[in-house]
Design goal:
Layout (H helix, E strand, L loop, with lengths): L10 E10 L2 E10 L2 E9 L2 E11 L4 H11 L9 E6 L13 E6 L16 E2 L11 H5 L14 H13 L2 H6 L3 E6 L5 E7 L2 H14 L8 E4 L5 H9 L4 E4 L5 H10 L2 E7 L2 E5 L1
Parallel strand pairs: 3-6, 4-7, 10-11, 11-12
Antiparallel strand pairs: 1-2, 3-4, 5-6, 8-9, 8-10, 12-13
Helix pairs in contact: 1-5, 5-6, 6-7
């Protein structure tokens, strides 16, 4: 490999022709970057192997990989995160150098990582369970320690989506990314992450806490768009007791949250919100 690799950013420049009524105006615009990220996994005595490929918005790639490993149940008693780094294999092209991340565990994973992701399991920016062998496997959630802290009251819940929106810098420039945030019961935002994929944004939030050595559980997970079951699943694996969504909830998300005792809100905004019973 020669020269410095191009570091992909969260946005790219483009030229557009904007039509408003009878007026036509040409100008520069920004698009949310969408590029593949390959995640490889290794541990003592094991060669690094590919376990997942997703389409993501570059930025916080190590957090994305770490959060995904946590949500997949690969960390557990006796298995921790030893490191995350970009892959430096000599056969990678310049375009691949910053799109391949290797996660190193300090012991064998808590479960065999290949049974859900044999070979190239490509995930789109809208799917969080691609490669699952069965619906039952996709819906399985390993019970986590129950949250023992305070929960956000309704007035705080209704403020959370707007607080997250104020922190969405990439959305301001492109209008094309989702956001996820971890919040305390009083509404304080601990971390906010954006990505073209809803599930990626949630992975980045958990990964940020994990890499910082902070607890991944808090009172509330806030998501900017639809609350799908894959997001509820990730929240449950992180022992987060409340999910607040600015959009709709799917039927399966509601069923999973209810069965697990999670509090789920949808269509939340100033003065409004649906609490799923």
């Amino acid at each position: 490999m020669t020269g410095l690799p191009r570091r992909p950013g969260p946005t790219v420049r483009t030229r557009v022709e904007e039509h408003v009524g009878d007026e036509v105006r040409r100008h520069e615009d920004r698009l949310a970057t969408e590029e593949p990220l390959e995640v490889r996994l290794t541990w003592p005595g094991a060669q690094a192997r590919r376990v997942w490929v997703t389409m993501r918005t570059p930025g916080h790639d190590f957090e994305l990989a770490a959060g995904w490993v946590r949500h997949e149940g690969l960390l557990g008693a006796g298995t921790g995160l030893a490191g995350v780094a970009y892959c430096t294999d000599a056969d990678l092209t310049r375009e691949q150098e910053l799109n391949v991340v290797t996660v190193t565990l300090d012991a064998a994973p808590a479960r065999e990582p290949g049974y859900r992701h044999e070979g190239l399991s490509a995930g789109s920016s809208a799917c969080g369970v691609c490669g699952a062998d069965s619906v039952a496997d996709a819906l399985s959630v390993t019970p986590a320690e129950p949250w023992a802290g305070p929960l956000p009251p309704p007035d705080v819940v209704r403020r959370l989506p707007d607080l997250v929106r104020e922190a969405q810098r990439v959305f301001d420039r492109t209008g094309g990314v989702h956001a996820a945030a971890l919040a305390r019961a009083d509404g304080e935002l601990l971390v906010v992450r954006e990505d073209i994929g809803r599930h990626n944004a949630v992975d980045k939030v958990t990964g940020a806490r994990l890499l910082a050595g902070e607890p991944v559980a808090e009172a509330c997970l806030v998501v900017s768009g639809r609350a799908g079951f894959e997001l509820v699943q990730k929240a449950l694996k992180a022992a987060i007791p409340v999910m607040v969504s600015g959009g709709a909830a799917s039927s399966l998300a509601g069923e999973m949250a209810s069965a697990a005792g999670m509090t789920l809100y949808s269509f939340v905004g100033p003065g409004r919100g649906n609490l799923h019973l």
